[in-house]
Amino acid sequence: xxxxxxxxxxxxxxxxxxxxxxxxxxxxxxxxxxxxxxxxxxxxxxxxxxxxxxxxxxxxxxxxxxxxxxxxxxxxxxxxxxxxxxxxxxxxxxxxxxxxxxxxxxxxxxxxxxxxxxxxxxxxxxxxxxxxxxxxxxxxxxxxxxxxxxxxxxxxxxxxxxxxxxxxxxxxxxx
Length: 175
Known about the structure:
Layout: H1 16-25, H2 32-43, H3 50-57, H4 66-78, E1 83-85, E2 96-98, E3 104-109, E4 114-116, H5 119-127, H6 131-141, E5 149-154, E6 161-162, E7 168-169
Parallel strand pairs: 3-5
Antiparallel strand pairs: 1-2, 3-4, 6-7
């Protein structure tokens, strides 16, 4: 099985210098807009859509365009700084983005909410995937698996996913 890597400690603010170093390591041209977009995405627990991210970053970059956010997210995705999450909604819905590119598991609702499975449970689930099975898949598909992402999709009764404190939250996309 591929190396699980280390969690990039999302939900904690990265200093601007650390973001600049990260961009340099990934050959991404550094701009203030990109720094701000990555900083907000990195600290987000909500797996924001481009539109949600744009609204948040406009608090510090008022002239930011949605096109810039989409282009920046595409660059981040292409260079491995974030991943695009498809929608589990039966009606489509906007893609969400996650700066945590380590192996981990999402709980996804049909309404578009996304939460990370607690790390201990995610590690247990991922550890139960036999390396032999990964090897079989690689050989059958002619690919090398670099990371494993699992989405656990819950039905409509799970639209408000309980937070760690037991209260419900809804990370639904806006229509």
